[in-house]
Amino acid sequence: MDRRFPHLRQDFTASIVVFLVALPLCVGVAVASGVPAELGLITGIVGGLVTGLMRGSSLQVSGPAAGLTVLVFEAVQTFGLAALGVIVLAAGLLQLAMGALKLGRWFRAISVSVVEGMLAGIGFVLIAGQLYAAAGLEAPASGLDKLAGLPGALAEAVVSTEALTSLAVGAGTIVVMVLWKHMPERVRAVPGALAAVALATLTSLGFSLPVAEVEVQGLLDAVQLPGSESFAGIAGLSVVGTILAFTLIASAESLFSAAAVDRLHDGPRTQYDKELMAQGTGNAVCGLLGALPMTAVIVRSSANVQAGAKTKASRVLHGVWLLLFAALLPSALALIPLPALAGILLHAGWKLIPLRAIVTLWRGHRGEALILVATAVAIVTVNMFEGVLIGLALSVVKTAWDASHISLDVIDKGAGPVQAYLSGNATFLKLPKILDSLEDLPQDRPVQLDLSGLHHLDHACRTALENWAARHSSPGTDPVQLTEPVMAKATSG
């Protein structure tokens, strides 16, 4: 057995750690998404037993993610819980298709600013929503309404003993999680989120606190197999937009997580197209079961690596432990206070906001920082899908603008020809600026226009420069001398 599974001991230990990390997150993400808690566990189980067995990234762990909470909540509120399975199934099939077409590696080309802006926007909406949940109040639907309603919710909570008690449980959960990393190493063997939930549960039971608790249906009762009526509305434009948003966000988050996990260990590197297909398969199965969508989750994945995992066996075993817990101890979920789960999600939402990245970008790349902030603001004020599209559009515009950087240097010695040097990338975006500068050159003296410093010269610019050169000089003045770009000479040679 040792020869066939040389790392079984390390993987077994790591699987226990990942299970303990995943358990409260699976339940918390499900409750925050407005679905039964068991659906979060089902997604975690599928992430271990299905995606965990497949090729791609050997050490990253998949399951329900805080990054999709806001989108799932919006989808359930708009289309109903019955439609969630169809949306997740369609997103999974799209991921499978993209993996088969070898598009996985292209997700690495998505601007990091857009992805971090997306996560920041999700974080803000998640925090706003969970503040209501921590107080035992019902949150408004839109992100902007959640933020605008916070002062009124606070005023309502201050005069309510039940709301203040609920807030105290949520705040206590956050405090335990923040301070847990300062505990002795032996104590930190228990994940902070699990310790915080356990302490909140014991406190709630011991003092009979008037706080809401998780509602339990049972694993099989929570499964929502998509019926024929669920597929009827899939062709609607809003549903298609939601499916695309699920696909884009889940794929980007998974593949960015894979890149981060690769930096944590010396084992085999991620095969991005296979990892995308593994995620697609997992989401397709989750969709068939009516469960939450999955992504690879950096919190669980880093815990897996740090616990000493060596192979994919650790993530498969963590799925086994989730299945055994859901099957044998479902009543234990009913003891968990909801404000404790809200505290976990508040902590997770805060970690989604890349404050250090914003500061770093602002110092060195202000354009990227503005894209990050604009994406986050658009997600909060509009919605998830359109916010991401706005971020992508801004990123494309910035890239096109940067790629069009060009400079014109003019040397006029007062006698002889005027020498003009163009360098950079000459594209139609900067054509008006180029022509305005060239028009200012004297027409009664010879001009030498040197294009050898250009890295790129598109057809529109070439035609415009040739037309300018043909008509620029006054009668009796030598025509403009054009020096071809080096790239053109290399091509023609």
From TrEMBL:
Residues annotated as domain SLC26A/SulP transporter: 8-375
Keywords: Membrane, Transmembrane, Transmembrane helix
One Pfam family it belongs to: Sulfate_transp
The organism's place on the tree of life at top rank: Bacteria
UniProt-recorded name of the protein: SulP family inorganic anion transporter
Keyword Protease: no
Transmembrane segments: 12-32, 76-97, 109-133, 153-180, 192-211, 231-256, 319-348, 369-394
Record bears the keyword Membrane: yes
Main location: membrane
Membrane topology note: Multi-pass membrane protein
Native source species: Streptomyces atroolivaceus
